[in-house]
Amino acid sequence: MSQLRLALVIHNHQPIGNFDGVFEQAYQDSYKPFLDLLAEFPSLAITLHNSGSLLEWLVEHRPEYLDQIRELADRGQIEIIGGPFYEPILASIPQRDRIGQIQQYSRYLENLFGQPVRGMWVPERVWEQSFARDIVDAGIEYTVLDDSHFRSAGHTPDELTSYFLTEDEGRLLQIFPVSEPLRYAIPFDDVHKSIEILREQFERHPNSVAVFGDDGEKFGTWPGTQEAVFEKGWLRNFFQLLQDNSEWLKVVTLAECVENLMPAGRTYLSDSSYREMTEWVLPSERQRVLLSLRKNKEKSDPDWHELSNFVRGGFWRNFRNKYPESNEMYCRMLGISERLEKLTNADTDREYADRLSEARTALYRGQCNCSYWHGAFGGLYLPHLRHAIYAQLIAADTILEKVERAMKASSNGVAGMSPDRWVEIESGDFNLDARPEVRVAGDRLAAYFTPAMGGHLYELDIRAIRHNLLATLNRRPEIYHEAIRQAANPDGNGDDLNAASIQGEIKCKQENLHQKIVYDEWPRKALVDHFLQPALTLDEFRTGHGHVSDFHTGVYQSLLKRSRERVEACFARRGQLGSYSVQITKSVALETSKGASLQIRYDLEDLPVGMPIHFAVEFNLAGLPGGADDRYYYDHTGQRQGRLDETLDQLHCERIGLVDEWLGVDVSLDFPMPCSCWAFPIETVSQSEGGFETVHQACCVVPHWEFVVPDNGRWSVELTLGIDTSAALARELCRTAEPRPVHTDES
C-alpha cells in the first residue's frame, strides 16, 4: 500500500543567558502542552531536538519534562536528535569545536535518555559543504536543511520528495529537505492547508517523504500562537487530521525513513541558510533592494517561481562585517579556543585536565549563536545575551590564565600555583583586522585597545564578576527603521515599495519611536578622544555635532612598557585641530598594587597658544542598565545623581560613579583636575518578537575640560577608572557559605 511519510522535526531552543522567566514561560506555553497533546495520539511520532542550553535548564527546573520524553521515546513516539551542545552556528566556531560540541551533546543525550543519537539539528540551518565531514566525524548519520538549499543547487520541487546523500572527503551524510510550504503553513494557515499540501505530494509522488522542521516555540510561545495553537485547537485538529488520514499518510521519525527508504541520490549543496537569514545578513540598503526585487517580481513576472530559486541573499559569516560587535565576540572566542587547544595538547596532570574541562564547557557555552547575529528577533541587540556570552568567555579565559601560570611555575620548579597578583602587556592582531591591537591584563582586569581606531579601549573584562564593561552596541541603520518612520508618517513621500509593507504589521511598544532613531558616527567605546567647539552643549554633542578634529577615529602609534609590577600602553597621534597640527599622547597603566583600576594620562602638545580649547574623553559603559532605583550615578560626596537611564550635565565634577547593585559593581571615574561631565543613555531602536522598542545599550559618560592654551602650548590631565566588585564578592561568599553546625550541651 502506498503511503506518504511525514517527518515532524521539532526544534526547541533558549539561548545561554536568557532569563529564567523566559525559559519557564516557553515551557508552559509550548514545550509541555505540545508533548501533553502528542501523548493523546499514540499513532503519531515526532523527531525532537532540544538545545543543550535549554536541556540543562530543564534538567534543573523541570525534570518531569524529561520523564515525559523518556516515556514517549520508549513507546516509539519520539526520536531524540542532537547537534552541537550549546547551539552555535557551525560556521562561527573552529572545526575542533564543531566535532567536540556534537560528540559531547550526543553522549549527554544518550546518558540522559538511553537512546542512541543518530541525527542532528543544524543551528539556524547555516550550511557549508565542509560541515558534512565534521558532522560524520562526530558520529552523526543524518540531518535536515531547508529545501531552499536544494533548490539553489538545481533541484526541482518534484525531486525533493526523499532524502539525499552528500559527502566531503569521502564522509557520507544523509540530508532531508525541509518543506518551506509546510513551514509557512504550520501552524499559521487553516489546518486543512497542510493536509492539502501533503495530499498533493502523495498524489504526485506515492511512497515519498515530506519533512516539516521548525521551532517548537511557534506552537504557543510566538506572539499570538498560544490562542490559535492550543486555545482554539489548531494543533489538536492537526494531529486528528493526521490520524484520520492514516490510510495514505504515516507520521514517522527520521530514523524510520532512513531505515526503510533508499536515498534519492547524491547532492552537493550551496553555502547558505534559510531564505530569511540570507536577507538579514545583507547591509540594510542591499536588503531593501533584494526585498523590492522579490516583491516586484512576484507581481509582474510569471516565471519568478523558477527564477527565485537562483536569487540568493548574503553569506552568514558577513554578520561579523555588518556588526563589528559580533566580530569582537567571535575573535575573543577564537583566541580562547586556540589557547585551550594548545594547553590540552600539552603534557598536563589530572588537576589541570579538570580545570581545562571547565574551561571547555565555558567556551562551548560562549559559542551559543543568538548573540552573534540579528534578524527578526533581538539577538545581538539584547544586552543580557551579549553579556552572557562574555561571562562564559571571561570565565574560560581566567581558568586558562591560572592553568598557564601554574604550568609555568611548575616547569620552573616552583610548587603550587602562580602568584596571586600579576600584570602583563602584549601586542597582536586580536580582532583579525590585520593591524596590531594591545592587550593589558592582570589577575583582575583584561583591557584591549585598538591603536588603528582612535586608540580606543574596546574591551574591559572584570574577572571577578565575569563582565565586559565595553560590550557596547552602536546605533546603525536597519531596514525596519524606515518602516517605523513610514508608520509614524503614513502620508509622507516614499518610494513605490512601502517599507512597512515589506516589514509586515508595525507594532511599536513605545510612542514616538521614530524620533529615537539616531546613528553613531564613531564606535561607542572608551577613551574616545574629542576636540570640540568651545561652549558646545550636551544636546549638540549627542547629535554628533561640534567636532573640530579627527582624533576620535584616527590612527595612533603605540609603545608598550613593562616591568614586573607595572605595565603601560602609550598611544600617540599627530593630527589636525582645525588648521593646526597638534599631538595627543595618552597612556594607560595597570599596576599590581593599585587594585582593579586603570591609571590614565593625557598629554596634549603643540596646541595653538592663547586659543580656547574644549577637550573631551568619552567612555561608554555597558551592562549597567537603567530603569531601576538600584542602578544609579553618584558624585564625589557619594550623593546619588540619578538613575543610569537619565541624563546628567554636571559642572565642577571631581568624580562620577556608576553603581549596579544587582550586578554588585561600582565603576568610578576620578578627576584630580575637576571637569564638567555629561552622561546620557545610548539606546538602540530594534526589532523583537513583540514589536519595535528601545533597548538601553550603554551609559555614555563624557568628562570635558575647557581651557585657554598656556604659553608652552601644552596641557595635561590624569584620571582613574576604578572598579569595585566587593559587593558582588560579599554576596557570593554569603551564597556559598555552608551553614554552621549547631552544638548543644546535653551534660
Query: Tell me, what's the shape?
Result: globular
Number of strands: 26
Mean pLDDT reading: 93
Structural class: alpha+beta
| Contiguous uncertain segments of 5+ residues | 494-503, 741-747
Q: Report the sheet-strand fraction.
A: 25-35%
What is the CATH class name of one domain?
Alpha Beta
List keywords for this structure.
single chain, 747 residues, alpha+beta, 7-stranded beta/alpha barrel, five-stranded parallel β-sheet, 22 helices, disordered C terminus
Per-chain topology:
Layout: E1 4-12, H1 20-38, E2 46-50, H2 52-61, H3 63-74, E3 78-80, H4 95-113, E4 119-121, H5 131-137, E5 142-146, H6 147-152, E6 164-168, E7 171-178, H7 180-185, H8 191-204, E8 209-215, H9 225-231, H10 234-244, E9 249-252, H11 254-260, H12 275-280, H13 284-300, H14 304-307, H15 319-322, H16 324-345, H17 350-365, H18 383-411, E10 423-428, E11 437-442, E12 445-450, E13 456-462, E14 467-468, H19 479-488, H20 499-503, E15 528-532, H21 538-542, E16 557-562, E17 566-577, E18 580-591, E19 597-605, E20 612-622, E21 631-634, E22 640-643, E23 648-660, E24 665-688, E25 691-708, E26 715-724, H22 726-736
Parallel strand pairs: 1-2, 1-8, 1-9, 2-3, 4-5, 5-7
Antiparallel strand pairs: 6-7, 10-11, 11-12, 12-13, 13-14, 15-20, 16-17, 17-18, 18-19, 19-26, 20-25, 21-22, 21-23, 23-24, 24-25, 24-26
Helix pairs in contact: 4-5, 8-10, 16-17, 16-18, 17-18
